[in-house]
Structures
1.
Amino acid sequence: MKLFKQIASLVLAVGMAGFMSVASAQEAPDVLVKRISQDVLDSVKADKSIQSGNQKKIFDLVDTKILPYVDFQRMTSMAAGRFWRDATPEQQKQLTEQFRTLLIYTYSTAISQIRDQQVQFQPLRMDAGATDGVEVHSQVLQSRGEAVQLNYRLEKTDSGWKIYDVNVLGAWLIESYKSSFATEINKGGMDGLIKALTDKNQKLASAKGK
């Protein structure tokens, strides 16, 4: 599971960057993912300080190029599963914030690992008028190691298409969090899960500050 999350975080970071524009709301999902994938690759490859781990630049890159295209609330509700419905609005808000922060740290670590990766896409297959569950299929190519299969699942919102899950090596990223979320909730309820994520984020923040 840990290895899967590490691979997923890297390929997710490769493919989930971009910039906000009026045109993005009109782009087909595969066109959007292709554009933002190439943008993040070009940005990282052109900046040696990001490759060397400059946290400020990495966090700025994550904040401006990744976050606008991620539906964190939907990701969080899916990861929480049936427990989401029983959570209070405040608990849902806190859980979403902490999960969002965890993913930011995950993305920032993965971004600094980008070197020679390239992304190839398969032709998009989607029903006419589809607005949810649309999948964009691709693979991440590396000079060393085998290609990593990567599928995105997107939904169409008022502000354009957004990614809410990613499939790496045949497994969906959100599914990998469901079991750990459920374990924490069974031990200490929703507040226990929120505390566990908060504690983990504080440790990550401390490590990043060293």
2.
Amino acid sequence: MQTRPIEFLGAAGQRLSARLDLPDGEPVGFALFAHCFTCSKSSLATVRIARALARRGLGVVRFDFTGLGESAGEFAAATFSSDVRDLAAVARQMADQGMAPELLVGHSLGGAAVVAAAADVPSAQALAVIGAPFHPQHLEGLLGGGLEKIMQAGEAEVDLGGRPFRIRRAFIEDLQAQDQGARLAALHRPLLILHSPEDRVVEIGNATQIFMAARHPKSFVSLAGADHLLTRPEDAAYAADVIAAWASRYLPASQETAEALASGVARADARGVEGFQVTIRTHDLRFTADEPADLGGSEAGPTPYALVAAGLAACTAMTVRMYAARKAWPLARVQVRVEHSKAAGRTPQDIFRRELAIEGELDVEQRARLLEIAGKCPVHRTLEGGSTIETAAVEPDEGRVR
């Protein structure tokens, strides 16, 4: 997994500091993460969940809202609505850079923000909210006596989570004007709600209200034992596991993988113009292929020739085992090692050296016969006999080739 800094412009033109967490191979899709009200892109829960999602194949953007962390602007001048506009602005710029977010994830008030922003993020296929309030106005309850000061004086400094924040009356009035119930009813996107019954900041009843207001498909997962900020690493990891598994049903890349399983094809996707890494999808698997370092690669996965060698090794083992079973011979195990090399001056230049380790109470003739059968596996015949390769140009289709 790799992390790199990235910047966006907020809806009002201010600089928003962000981080992009990427998997080692090509991402199966991209997610946009919105942190909690007093958090930042570097808060423990934000970092842990974003990186855990990246390890599961997603590219994740996490950014600081206006006036928080390393982002420019004045926090006191921001409102819930302006944060929602910033979310939509970041999503548009991600799309412009080939990273259109297909999954929106929000923690606490960030969860309410992604629900509010979803209508302005057409690429979003699904949403996940963690410890989110049903209504943004829930934040007023955390202000204590500071709320009265804000409403009377127009602004006041309040203590939230042990840190001072200056909040203005406009922020409170903006919270009160939100109609989150209507937004949830009109969401028309799959929604995953994760909440802890032990959450003392945003009570579990909020999850019930969100679930009841939203339409299907919707899912609820209990984060039993977790606190609001998911300070235990195992809680953040569990949330990320659940989100990644749940979202795989709705992300286009996962749908493409299911199609490959049905049609028995293999697909390679190479994005950008640098490096050798490509994403391979076949059956229900997704992995990275690469080249060795001495050829300019980063060794993030098997080489193309290693994949061919793997095909020969797999086919050989299957063929030998199937023949022994048909003969009812006591074959306990067969191991096949295949190594590819090239020999200059020879025709053909490509050499696949195959070694078989056969275990079982077999006599000399049986072992010799199994070695002979190894040479009759279909991939062996294909490599020795040659093949016809037909190539056609097709139009890019985001649903098929990713």
3.
Amino acid sequence: MRLISYQPQVSPWTSFDRLSSLRDLLDSAFQLASPGPQTGRGWAPALDIYEDADHVTVKLEAAGLKKEDFDISLHDDNLTVSGERKSETEEREGESFRSERFFGQFSRTVTLPAPVKADGVTATYADGVLTVTLPKAEEAKPRKIEVNVK
């Protein structure tokens, strides 16, 4: 493994430029240390999981996909969302450009915090965010227990 060290330099750069350079340096160090998205492992879109009394909601950030690009499955307490963002081909003049968006296949599997009813699961895709709403099974919903006086 090659070690990359950061040597701060005094220059007229703004703070943002320095942070951007540091980020680029750290990104390249992590790509050397472990296989990353460009080495065939794919990419993993960010997701959030919310839970309320009646539902578990999973929101997955996946801009640039179409609804047919997703495959959603539920097995036991695991929700799997997979798909593929197809690479865009764009003709550019010149030699210098930067590409930070990931393309290719992805798969995210999350263990749900509560049992859900599989037949009531819905999925919507709007503004680059896939929202999967999973209704909780009755046994997973909180119940109010009355106290009886004797």
